[in-house]
Amino acid sequence: LNISHALARPDGSGFERPRLDKMQTGMSALQCLYETADGWIAVVAPKEAHWTALKTVLNAPALEAADFATPEARRKNDAALRELLRTAFKARPALAWREALDAAGVPAEVSDPTFAHRLHDDPEMRAGGLTVTYRQELVGEFSQMGLMFNFSDTPGKVQGPPLVVGEYTREVLTELGYTADQIAELSAAKVAGVWESGQPLINGPRRFMGYKPEVYDAKPKDAPASGPAAAQMAPAK
Question: Are 61 and 110 in contact (CB under 8 A)?
Answer without folding.
Answer: no
